[in-house]
Amino acid sequence: MIIRKARNGDRDEILRIMEFWNMHHVPSEEMPELDISCFFIAEEDGKVVGASGYKMLSPEVGKTTLLGVDPEAKGKGIGMALQEARLKKMYEMGAKKVITNADRPATIEWYKKHFGYYEIGKLKKIHSFGKEDVDEWTTIEMDLDKYYG
Fold first, then answer.
1. Buried/exposed 132-146: b ≥16 CB within 10 Å, e otherwise
2. CA dihedral defined by 92, 140, 85, 2, rounded to 10 degrees?
3. In what order do the strands lie in the sheet with 136-143?
4. SS3 state at 76
5. Among 31, 26, 28, which Cα is nearest to 11's?
6. Cβ of 61: how many Cβ atoms within 10 Å?
7. Which of 17, 56, 78, 96 has its CA 20 to 30 A from that of 5?
8. pLDDT digit string (tens) for 27-63?
9. Which residue range(s) make up the domain with 79?
């Protein structure tokens, strides 16, 4: 497996991966844009098996956007590698904190366990995006200085 920066031709593959998780509605009110320059791609044997995105909200605050792994490639550490890649990039850009919205309890626990996230609030979903039977995002935050310190 390799992790690389996304290229212009990767948009359709990113959305193909996100469709497994109902996070492919782009553009939408939940996800207005997909900025390829802020995405990482996981490839296995030349095939895209995962993707993760981020954006900077301010010079010191980053935000994760999308993270998805092809279900056939689960359990190989791909999600972890994609998360690490975007955290490192945001940290290099000056981020001290990272905000993430998630709606799957297991995913929220994964973020807390491996990256030290803590819950800071809830946000009502605007339309169908992510887990269909959950109508709000759990907003979690992590301290990058502490994580890398």
1. eeeeebbbbbbebee
2. -170
3. 2-5, 39-44, 47-58, 61-69, 97-102, 136-143, 118-124
4. coil
5. 26
6. 17
7. 96
8. 999 999 999 999 999 999 999 999 999 999 999 999 9
9. 2-148
Q: Looking at the predicted structure, is the pLDDT value of residue 6 above 90? A: yes
Quickly state the pLDDT bin for 149 (edges 50, 70, 90). Answer: confident
Which amino acid, residue 45?
A: D
Query: Which residues, including other chains, have CB under 8 Å from residue 26's CB and lie 6 or more apart?
Result: 15, 18, 32, 33, 34
Domain count for the chain: 1
The CATH number linked to 9 is: 3.40.630.30
On whether the CB atoms of residues 93 and 54 are closer than 8 A, the answer is: no
- Collapsing DSSP states into helix, strand and coil, what is residue 120? strand
Q: Is-contact 123 30, C-beta < 8 A? A: no
Q: How confident is the model at residue 146 (pLDDT cuts 50, 70, 90)?
A: very high
> What is the residue whose two structure tokens read 């030290």?
116
* Distance, CA of 64 to chain centre: 5
